[in-house]
């Protein structure tokens, strides 16, 4: 089998033949004219044929040169097309997303291994940050934001609902029941109320919606992350008003329990995929949306089981943006 000459020689030859000038070919290839001439001469020596017919300062292709130019042009074009195609494929398999911190750590994070295993050739970048993406300046496919979809100018697709209820450690629930019976107002009045500062549904809204007036004998606790609020409740510091979306693990393990089944769980769409409409057409985004929808369905099965276990009813908010007052801080 004949040994293939250096591909560089063919690239240099093709550029000279196409640009009809050693100087212009050198400018295109970012090398010196002498380097181009040397490569063309080397190729002529290796092939044992003349590729150019030189007449004074001008030159033209020989018959053999014409044949090699057609073949080398076609080959280089195929290589460039393949390079562009592979580049687009690689870009399509890179997914960049931003997610609110607590949801990212507590809900999305434990599930991401499943996504990575289902897409082994993809690159994945996850940015758990409170600030929304500036899509005009940042390289990001989409955000997973917490709120009520009041983000003008963006495509907003709901992926998961909040199911908010009072939760506490089992020992605290038993103690409150022993002291106050099953009266929820009395039970809450005898405990510290833990609030997540970034949550859409907070104690004042929840108490008003359930027609409860609570005069607590102790100070409340206000924290800026759901993870901190849940940990305080697990440690017996008080009763937290939180979502099953971020508290599923604690409730499933029995570290936290519903304070009382007599009042309904407040439910509303709270977690959204947000991005410019054009991003929805990206293959990576469409694949992730299909996957996260499946994960959300599995989550619903888990939360339905929890609600059935504790005999909890549901109070669905019909107009969350109006009732809760805007889009929320978006950082839970």
TrEMBL record:
**One matching Pfam family, short form?**
LysR_substrate
Recorded hits in SUPFAM superfamilies, A to Z, give: Periplasmic binding protein-like II (SSF53850), Winged helix' DNA-binding domain (SSF46785)
Q: Which UniProt keywords apply?
A: DNA-binding, Transcription, Transcription regulation
List residues of the HTH lysR-type domain. Answer: 13-62
Q: Which GO terms describe its biological process?
A: DNA-templated transcription
Tagged with keyword Cytoplasm: no
- Is Transcription regulation one of the keywords UniProt gives this record? yes
Name of this chain's protein: Glycine cleavage system transcriptional activator
Q: Which organism is it from?
A: Pacificibacter marinus
